Amino acid sequence: MNLVDVIIPAAGVGSRMNAEVAKQYLSINSVTVLDHTLNIFLEHPAIKRVLVGISAKDELARKSRYVNHPKLQFFVGGNERADTVLAGLASLSGDDLVMVHDAARPLLSSVLLDSLVATPLAKNEGAILALPARDTVRKLEAGRTQTIDRSQIWLAQTPQMFHRGFLYNALSSAIDSGEAITDEASAAELMGGAIHMVESSPINFKITTPSDLVMARALFSQRS
């Protein structure tokens, strides 16, 4: 079994949630979103360490129920997601596998994590969880729509897994060149890397809006 480090960027605010605290600290069944996410990785035998990138002013992260877990470390992240992930990568050494996962994606299953960990990767490749598009996809441009072949459309999720050195170089290059990247896979693609898609589940969604939080609470209630 591959042993993998995990980086969770959690230095952002999540303005679309319009909440009093960052969305990773909202509660689901009296447990924060971040702690639900941490539990997935801290309990998995393939995970060596979990590094959480937080803002310098964050006073809530160290109230985590897992704050003393031997696998867990916190570090100060940057202004942008890529800056935070890059800081986490810089704190590691060697060229082992590393995953990046959204703090507000707490419904990842161990089965999906197993599938991603088992994906063989060359040095310049990545593997990500993703969901094939099931609805008709239309592009809106200048007031006109165009239907796109959905058989070629996949919706990217996290975790996303790479060798540490390749992802470090890809993110550094993207930041230096001012490229707009939305996730780690997009930086890897700019470096010519191939990305393997591992089919995911709609349940592994990211909590972004209040309606997402309602759905996540309902799903966790069904589990308990």
Automatic annotation (TrEMBL):
Superkingdom: Bacteria
Coiled coil: none
Catalytic activity: 2-C-methyl-D-erythritol 4-phosphate + CTP + H(+) = 4-CDP-2-C-methyl-D-erythritol + diphosphate
GO MF, any single term: 2-C-methyl-D-erythritol 4-phosphate cytidylyltransferase activity
Enzyme class: transferase
Site (Transition state stabilizer): R16, K23
Gene3D superfamilies: Spore Coat Polysaccharide Biosynthesis Protein SpsA, Chain A
Pathway: Isoprenoid biosynthesis; isopentenyl diphosphate biosynthesis via DXP pathway; isopentenyl diphosphate from 1-deoxy-D-xylulose 5-phosphate: step 2/6
InterPro entries: IspD, IspD/TarI, IspD/TarI_cytidylyltransf_bact, ISPD_synthase_CS, Nucleotide-diphossugar_trans
Entry's family note: Belongs to the IspD/TarI cytidylyltransferase family. IspD subfamily.
Its biological purpose: Catalyzes the formation of 4-diphosphocytidyl-2-C-methyl-D-erythritol from CTP and 2-C-methyl-D-erythritol 4-phosphate (MEP).
Protein name in the entry: 2-C-methyl-D-erythritol 4-phosphate cytidylyltransferase
Source species: Umboniibacter marinipuniceus
Gene designation per UniProt: ispD
